[in-house]
Amino acid sequence: MDNRPIGIFDSGVGGLTVAKQVMKVLKNENIVYFGDTARLPYGSKSKETVTRFSKQIVRFLLTKNVKAIIIACNTASANSLEELRKTFDVPIFGVVVPGASEAVKATKNKKVGIIGTLGTVRTGEYKKLICEADSSIQVFSKACPLFVPLVEEGWTNTEITKLTAKEYLGELLKEGIDSLVLGCTHYPLLKRCIGDIVGENVKLVDPAKETAITVKNFLIDNNMINDGKEDKNHIFYVSDYTEQFDVLCEKALKKVYKPQVIDIESY
Amino acid sequence: MDNRPIGIFDSGVGGLTVAKQVMKVLKNENIVYFGDTARLPYGSKSKETVTRFSKQIVRFLLTKNVKAIIIACNTASANSLEELRKTFDVPIFGVVVPGASEAVKATKNKKVGIIGTLGTVRTGEYKKLICEADSSIQVFSKACPLFVPLVEEGWTNTEITKLTAKEYLGELLKEGIDSLVLGCTHYPLLKRCIGDIVGENVKLVDPAKETAITVKNFLIDNNMINDGKEDKNHIFYVSDYTEQFDVLCEKALKKVYKPQVIDIESY
């Protein structure tokens, strides 16, 4: 048994959708969440910068005595997981590996679509992992930079969002995909709108759930599960606080956790 | 005469539209430009964080021996100008003061609209300055968070952008404004689309031109103009480099300047 908390980090608040799945699948675990709200978003930034930021965050989380770390952010998972694992002596999980594995299971016609930020799509990580698992699968990727600001504006199902989704998803639909990976933590909040555009024959894959299951299995296999005998205590940190945190926290977790602000640049 | 360069900084690449006006109005001056591309955008972030970032940037620009500094970013101008002027012993200019002064001149019916980021609108700086200059003017503000990502996606005049502009500008038009301040460096790139929505009876005010004129007058009054005897040399720095810089540099300055990447967190 290991009652230390699990660290979860994200470029901002989108990772709260991953925290939600972890809370659901790993009911006894405590979470230390960090959102890099001062420097978000990561999706448009270079591999070098995303990796530098991620290293600072892992160093911060290690000061909170975490037993494992989940990179909730797809961009950081795709760009920095390997380098973080090389650098730090703590189990680290990204969302891309579980997401890719779920996509392989989901597709019947062997045509998978991936949507994400520019930074995620640029790495080709989802495509690489899916093709390694099954080389007969064709993968079609599309960066959708406007989806995150649309969610943050609260326009999750407006005419403008529908038109944007049509514009982004049109090419993928023409390719005949039967599964679509929501490769960015904000996208599950657009599930209804995206679902309406792609139709019910295209399965939407949310990597968050599979990630939580992967971490659960790891903790069980390594005898590191929290025994649940102590009171539960989730703690939230951000690098910048505005009310937007509360709004998205309420939306994702149905509860507002007040975050502490820390200076991530000093780590 | 003072042949030292002028420092210009912005949260990213939008400030290149201000650099363009400075190059036009102050033909003999050299520019040292810094774009905080690793931590952009500033528009959604708190006053404290924007001011902390701005201080790091001023410290960096001072190492480049600048004779004056222009804050090209509306969000940083609105949130941090006062604090920067208190902290540093170098002439510092924002875009909000000149923009407000231009709006006062532009309006005939005394009804002015302001559009900008959440962070700019939240400060109420434009409104305060305009009302101080003429208390009979009514000011109506609207944050337009989607305009920046729409420009960065290259969708400057699509159906989606038109619908978004209609949504954001509808309220201001109902108030009967006759002038509209483009209170964010990206917005001049949407001039055509915004102009179509508001109609030709609403004057669009771009603070960049007036800012360049303000700085020119200051340099003349203080005998600090560059004598133009040395070769011109504009230098560009960013905190993160991706090809997006080249794209927007080409769009704003009709030329691609290759930027140097620096670690702004160490200043």
Automatic annotation (TrEMBL), chains A, B:
Active site feature: C73, C184
Entry coiled-coil feature ranges: none
EC code(s) of this entry: 5.1.1.3
Lineage: Bacteria, Bacillati, Bacillota, Clostridia, Lachnospirales
Annotated residues for binding of substrate: D10, S11, Y42, G43, N74, T75, T185, H186
Species annotation: Candidatus Fimicola merdigallinarum
Broad enzyme group: isomerase
TM stretches of this protein: none
Pfam short name (any one): Asp_Glu_race
Keywords: Cell shape, Cell wall biogenesis/degradation, Isomerase, Peptidoglycan synthesis
Alphabetical GO biological process terms: cell wall organization; peptidoglycan biosynthetic process; regulation of cell shape
Reaction equations catalysed: L-glutamate = D-glutamate
NCBIfam families: glut_race (TIGR00067)
Keyword Isomerase: yes
Protein's name in the database: Glutamate racemase
Function in brief: Provides the (R)-glutamate required for cell wall biosynthesis.
The family this protein is said to belong to: Belongs to the aspartate/glutamate racemases family.
PANTHER family: GLUTAMATE RACEMASE (PTHR21198:SF2)
Pathway in which the depicted protein is active: Cell wall biogenesis; peptidoglycan biosynthesis
GO molecular function annotation: glutamate racemase activity
